[in-house]
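Quick note —
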Amino acid sequence: MNDPVENAKRLAAFKAVDNHVVDGVIGIGSGSTVVYAVERLAQRVKDEGLEVICVPSSFQAKQLIIQHDLKLGDLEMNPYLKVTIDGADESDHMLTLIKGGGGCLTQEKILASCAEEFVVIADYRKASTHLGEQWTKGIPIEVIPSAYRVVYHKIDKILGGKSELRMSGSSKAGPVVTDNGNFILDWNFEGVKDWKEVETTLNMQVKIPGVVENGLFVGMARKAYFGMSDGTVMERNV
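Predicted structure written out below.
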């Protein structure tokens, strides 16, 4: 593989699947790095006879599971997961994550919360000391469509910064719509924050009604694999 970024994603994904997947129910995250994780998982199922049920976090993840002939499950039938493997838009040194660049943050956070172990896979561009060093698009916040303007103003008043409604771009007129039928605000912040406090504030319905979930994952991941440009894999633990 000639592309160093894609190779880094593949290395991180393969190592995580090799080190953490055993027989059981597996949560499958979303994004470009997860594509390689599902590829490796399918190889292991074929070669080693692993018995796994895969629970997807998004339409994309569901299609990957189906395309690789893996057993598809859901949280209604499988609410307890052995491990969830997912990517991240950025990770700080304590494995506090920004997720939701692809719009799947709510389901991703649900799967992470249901797993005995939440493992992050990413390339070297996503590894930071502090959030905001690499990822400059803000923290995604999924909101009820009718409340997006209210949430926009309340976040700006309570937390400062600047929020923007995520638009679909040239392929579709209007805002991005999540798999849950909601909108996404991207909150651009300044400086280092107490991220647990920010996460709690964003989800407090008394203060900011209309928020479904936010893309801060605080204290959830315990292990991360970052594929590096030199062909190695950097591991972080907390």
